[in-house]
C-alpha cells in the first residue's frame, strides 16, 4: 500500500547480511517487498546465529559475526549497472516532474485571486500531498529497494513508514471532496456552496484522519543493525497477521472506499450533464455553463481514473506476495516490485499535466511560469484568463444569478416603461416545452445583462 513500509522493499537480496546459503535464502524470502517482518526475522535469526531475547519478544539480539567469508554468498537480486541506471533515471523523472509540476499548480492557485475557488483549494491540498510524497518518499524507497540497506537513521525510518499513508490519504480524499462538491453544485445548485472557512476545516479534518490512520506505522517502526547492514521495518506486536490485516484496512480506506464514492457521484453527475437537456433552461448562457461544467467534471474523472490505474498493480502485488510467499523467491520479483512501485509513484506527476492540457486557466498559468523559455509565448488572452475579476454577487448558482439579473434589468430599465411592462408580460408567458432556445424577445430584453454575464472572464460557476 501507500505506506511503503521499508520492510517490504528489501529487494537487494542477501549480500553482506550473514553466513552461508541459508542466510541468502532467508533474505531472498523476505527480499521481495511484501513479506511481513514477523515471517522472516526468525529465518534471519536462525540463519545467522542470532538469538531472540526472551525478555523482549520479537526483538533480536545479535551474536558475533559468522566466520563465513562474505565472498561465498550468492545474490539472485543483484542487478547490472545499466539496469540500475535506467531505473534511477525513471524514478528521477517522476520526482522532478511531480515536485516542480505540483509546486507550480500551488503557485497558480494561490497567486491569482480568480483561481481561489472551492475546487481549487482541494487541488492545492492534492498538489501539496503529491509533491511531498515525491520529494520525501520516492527516492528513499527506491534506494532502499536497490541496496537493502537503510542509510537514513531511526527518525527518518519512522517518518518514512508514517508519511506515505498520510499523503495518499490526503490526496484521494481531496479528490473525493471535489467529487462531492461537484455533485452538490450540479445536482442541487440552489444550495449554498462551501465557504472558504468550511473548505479549510474539511482539509484540516482530512489531514487529522490521515495522521490517525498512519500513526501505527510510526509507533511500531524499528531500525536494526544486522551483521553487514542496517534495516528499517515495522514490527507489529502480533506479527504478520496483524500486519496484513492493517494494510488490507488501509487499502480499503485509501483506495476502494473513496473510489466507490467518486464512482457513484461522477456517474450521477455524468448522467445529469451528458444525459440530456434540462427543461426550461435552454438559453445560450445555459449551454455555455453546461460546457464549462462538463469540462471540469471530465478533467476530474481523468484525474481519478489515472490514480486508480496507477495504484492498482501495487495493491495487487502486495496482496499476492503476502498470501503466496513463494513468489518472493521468484527471479524477476524485484523488477516487478520496482515497476509497480514506479507506476504508483508516477501518479504524483500526472495531475499537473492533466490540468495544463484540459483547463485553459491552468494552461495560462503554466505559460506564465515558463515564460522565460524562448519557445513559450504568453498572449494577452492568457493574461486575462488569470487576471480578470470573477463576478460573484451571491453564493447561489450561476443559473439562478443569470435569471435574477435579467429580471432586475427589465424592471429598472429607465428607457421605456411601456416596453418594460410588455417585456415582463412576455416573460410571464409560459414557455413552449418543445422550444430548444430562448425566444428572441427574451434575449433582446436582457441583452445588456447577457452580454456581461456570458463573458468568459466573469463566469460564476466555471471552476477551476
UniProtKB/TrEMBL annotation:
Q: Which PROSITE patterns match?
A: G_PROTEIN_RECEP_F1_1 (PS00237), G_PROTEIN_RECEP_F1_2 (PS50262)
Q: Which Gene3D superfamilies match?
A: Rhodopsin 7-helix transmembrane proteins
One Gene Ontology molecular-function label: tachykinin receptor activity
Which biological process terms from the Gene Ontology are attached to this UniProt entry? positive regulation of flagellated sperm motility
The record, for SMART domains, names: 7TM_GPCR_Srsx
Subcellular location(s) of the protein: Cell membrane
Work out whether the entry's keyword set contains Protease: no
UniProt-listed CDD domains: 7tmA_NKR_NK3R (cd16003)
Q: Which residues form the G-protein coupled receptors family 1 profile domain?
A: 101-355
Composition bias, kind Low complexity: at what positions? 434-464
Among the entry's GO cellular component annotations, what is one? sperm midpiece
Membrane spanning residue stretches: 84-110, 122-147, 159-180, 201-220, 246-275, 296-325, 337-358
Alphabetical list of Pfam families matching this protein: 7tm_1 (PF00001)
In this chain, the stretch annotated as Disordered covers: 417-464
Which keywords annotate this record?
Cell membrane, Disulfide bond, G-protein coupled receptor, Glycoprotein, Lipoprotein, Membrane, Palmitate, Receptor, Transducer, Transmembrane, Transmembrane helix
The protein's matches in InterPro entries, at most eight in alphabetical order, are given as:
GPCR_Rhodpsn (IPR000276), GPCR_Rhodpsn_7TM (IPR017452), Neurokn_rcpt (IPR001681), NK3_rcpt (IPR001013)
Q: Which residues form a coiled coil?
A: none
UniProt keyword Iron-sulfur present: no
Could you name the domain of life of the organism this protein comes from?
Eukaryota
Disulfide bond entries: 157-232
Q: Give the record's membrane topology.
A: Multi-pass membrane protein
Question: What family name appears in the similarity comment?
Answer: Belongs to the G-protein coupled receptor 1 family.
Official protein name in the record: Neuromedin-K receptor
Native organism is Myotis lucifugus
Q: What is the lineage of its organism?
A: Eukaryota, Metazoa, Chordata, Craniata, Vertebrata
